[in-house]
Specification:
Layout lengths: L1 E9 L5 E10 L4 E5 L6 H9 L6 E6 L2 E2 L5 H8 L2 E4 L11 H11 L4 H14 L15 H13 L5 E5 L7 H16 L3 E5 L3 H6 L4 E5 L2 E5 L1
Parallel strand pairs: 3-8, 3-9, 6-7, 7-8
Antiparallel strand pairs: 1-2, 1-4, 4-5, 9-10
């Protein structure tokens, strides 16, 4: 699913943020991505999302080297990758339903082809009663669940989550990670960046630990 070979990343002429990353992620796995602030977690997720290119080395996704892909091929590959941000990034002028359906609308799909699926997904994440609500009236937890629903509505093969529980209370954090675990059971490969120790101790998923630009794995 994911393979890094001697990958390094630097911004401009600065020092390498990530260096000599070599690892494989198997399909259907779930990993926590951990590390101190500034260790490069977000940069690694951007490499996986194909919004950054490595300074050196090779990133392979779905069996294809990403360095040789043209722009259209990169866009097509990104459609198989979902992303959940800490800051939600919902559009205030759209309803919950419209926010979640947005990735499908961008692809030009008619509402009749996805309406039932969007409603079913919102009910599954506990937002069936908030279909027509706009983000300003949603709680932090509701916004995050809407953001997760938007990230998975296109059925991505890989789901990346960048500190997705950073803006919610501990109880809701556990509920959200249980939601990610259910998605993983359905076959989605998940990499979830977090620094919250209670989450790491509450779930048995292996960890990718970044420190000084290098990565190591632990159960």
């Amino acid at each position: 699913m994911i393979e890094f070979s001697n990958v390094g990343l630097r911004y401009g002429q600065g020092p390498e943020i990530l260096r000599d990353l070599t690892f494989r992620i198997e399909p259907g796995s779930f990993h926590f991505l951990t590390g101190p602030s500034g260790s490069g977690k977000t940069s690694l997720l951007k490499l996986l999302l194909l919004s950054l290119k490595p300074t050196r080395g090779e990133v392979t996704l779905f069996g294809k080297s990403t360095s040789a892909l043209n722009q259209d091929e990169l866009l097509e590959m990104r459609r198989h990758i979902g992303i959940v941000f800490q800051e939600f990034r919902l559009l205030d002028h759209l309803t919950t339903f419209e926010n979640v359906a947005l990735p499908l609308r961008v692809l030009g799909q008619p509402e009749s082809s996805y309406r039932a699926n969007v409603i079913e997904l919102l009910e599954w994440v506990g937002l069936g009663h908030r279909l027509n609500a706009h983000p300003p009236v949603l709680s932090g937890g509701e916004k995050q669940r809407a953001a997760i629903a938007r990230a998975v509505i296109g059925r991505p093969d890989i789901l990346l989550a960048d500190e997705p529980t950073g803006n919610v209370d501990p109880e809701l954090s556990l509920r959200l990670v249980r939601l990610f675990a259910e998605l993983n059971k359905m076959g989605t490969t998940i990499i979830l960046a977090t620094h919250e120790l209670p989450l790491l101790e509450s779930f048995p998923f292996p960890r990718m630990m970044l420190d000084n630009g290098e990565v190591r794995f632990a159960d």
